[in-house]
Amino acid sequence: MSARVVVIGSINQDVTVTVDRFPEPGETLYTRSLSYRLGGKGANQAAAAAHAGADARFVGRVGSDAAGPALREELAGHGVDVTGLLVDEGTTGSAFITVAASGENTILIDAGANGRVAAEQVDAAALRAGDVVVLQGEIPAAGNAAAIASARAAGATTILNLAPVYDIDAEDLAAVDILVVNETEAGLVLGRSAPRDTAEALDVAAQLAGRGPRRVLITLGGAGAVRYDAASAGEPQGAHVEAISAGPVVDTTGAGDASVGALAAALALGLDFERAVSEAMRAGSAAVLSPGAAASYGAIKPIRL
């Protein structure tokens, strides 16, 4: 059986408005457009993994409202197996996104059904050896803890995108194979300021690896990323990875999720960490070329082996 990418996480309805600029406190502005799209870090990452060529499966929850069935259908349309997507009474998770003309965004999240992804649902996912399991910070910590334990017991590889950052148990963090964070999140995990440059980011990545994860990826926006591999033969290896420009930036929403999904897909397809990071950067650069999160992932090309 081929390896799978199994994403256990959040799925939201993204309500996105575009504006010329962000409003000041107390200010009212007219928007340029309004859209309702599939979102949630987990769903985005599963969609990106599927576009990158992996067998992608999603485990999560939607509500019994009108948004739930629509999001299920949209995620399946990206080529993701949604048999692990359950329906709860109540509301589906929502994200309220403002995108400025510069392409930058602000996001507010209501967890909805995502707040009820629990250990028993993780157990039903039947993880197996060789799977690449992707987690984020948008479901309860207990659900993530159960997934980390199940993945370790099954012989699967665990990628934790610790976004948003939560107070993760030290033993759970140590059991993660790959930690992915941006520069701000990296600082929060260590209780310090964000790294100011790539040299400092490499030092921070090494410190994060000292917490247990054998491999660390810190994304740095326009400055690219740094990767750190404590599991390589010989001495641990760290490197700066240049950003890739695929064209004018339209919307950065979901770019980080595209990178995580492609990273997982590359590993499931058998690539090493260095090559997988390159594929992650390529997917992230493609995702900023059009509006939306998963809606922009058609630009992600299948990984060539």
Automatic annotation (TrEMBL):
Record localization: Cytoplasm
Binding site for K(+): 251, 253, 287, 290, 292, 296
Cofactor binding notes: Requires a divalent cation, most likely magnesium in vivo, as an electrophilic catalyst to aid phosphoryl group transfer. It is the chelate of the metal and the nucleotide that is the actual substrate.
Pathway listed: Carbohydrate metabolism; D-ribose degradation; D-ribose 5-phosphate from beta-D-ribopyranose: step 2/2
Catalytic residues of the enzyme: 257
Amino-acid positions noted as binding substrate in the UniProt annotation, renumbered to this chain: 12-14, 40-44, 138, 257
Reaction(s) catalysed (UniProt annotation): D-ribose + ATP = D-ribose 5-phosphate + ADP + H(+)
Xref: Gene3D superfamilies: 3.40.1190.20
Keywords of this entry: ATP-binding, Carbohydrate metabolism, Cytoplasm, Kinase, Magnesium, Metal-binding, Nucleotide-binding, Potassium, Transferase
Functional description taken from the UniProt entry: Catalyzes the phosphorylation of ribose at O-5 in a reaction requiring ATP and magnesium. The resulting D-ribose-5-phosphate can then be used either for sythesis of nucleotides, histidine, and tryptophan, or as a component of the pentose phosphate pathway.
Name of the molecule in the record: Ribokinase
Organism: Actinomyces ruminis
Taxon lineage: Bacteria, Bacillati, Actinomycetota, Actinomycetes, Actinomycetales
Gene coding for it: rbsK
